[in-house]
Amino acid sequence: MTTRRSMLGAALATTGAGLFTSAALAPLVLAAAREDDPATAPAAAPRVTPFSVPLPIPPVLAPESTKGGVDTYRMTLRPARVEILPGVRTEVLTYNGSFPGPTIRARSGRPVVVHHTNALDVPASVHLHGASVPQSSDGDPMDTFGPGRTRTYTYPNRQPHASLWYHDHAHHSEAEHVFRGLSGSYLLTDDLEQSLPLPSGAYDIPIALRDARFDDRGALVYVMDDVPGRTTLLANGRPQPYLKVAARKYRLRLLNSSNMRFFHLRLSDGAALTQIGSDGGLLPAPHTTDALWLSPGERVDLVVDFGRYPVGAQVVLENTVGPGTPGEVGQVMRFDVVRTAADPSSVPARLRTLPPLCLLYPS
Asked: Is the pTM of this model over 0.85?
């Protein structure tokens, strides 16, 4: 029997790297998604006017303790009603009531302990995606903790800086749990990254991109392998938001938290994007491009210089690949340049020197 996974594997094996173009990849993903999907027509979701809501910035979680050189956090997995579509309250699954979850900012060499309490009515497991952790804290799909239970995860942070993310990992439930909101950012830094004059503070912004499907009441609709039906794009949990920016450089930490959707991103005026990092942290040197792919679970760190625009300018972050029409999935969010600002930041020509792989993660 031909399956989605075997079709993708065969295509990759026969076409190699040449497959990954907007012309070739989009039909493949679309066909794979439709293979056993009983309902591909988009739900009649309430209409949303593009760029009518601001981009929310997920809260940074404060540790409840920093004793002994260990940062200790507490989170509760619980349902909540939040506003995603303007004027509509939607039932979601959350960490601490936040959609997406709160951001943890950690430092290499300083351990983090997170106590997760399950206030859902189903088992859960929390996985820190991209982290080097002991097996007991890896969030194995079968290593769940049930309703009313608390599980403690320990993250030693014995690895270089990286933009990581955490999400539910429960066997057979992960896809729906993440679709309904169980994910958040975990930003690990170190002395090397901190020594660089990159944009920081309010100018360092995590942005989680994903797709969603809603019914006519604004409720999330989960159907397995339903990427053609998920034609509402969200950035940090809101549809096609705007972000007011100063005319200076920003660091944008993009995460694709979709189950299946690929993004092919560019600025609407074709201006340059400077990629400085990927899943594993900073690149050895910045890479300038006018567009980039972002696959499910992937992270990309960009620096965008809004100083090249006058105050009053607007530029849209576009997605140029389906499923979905350009009117549905072509506009991700908009940047509105509203003020001038001093900009002491810069992007060095050399970001870091990578040691041999065996020295990055010694046994």
From this structure: yes
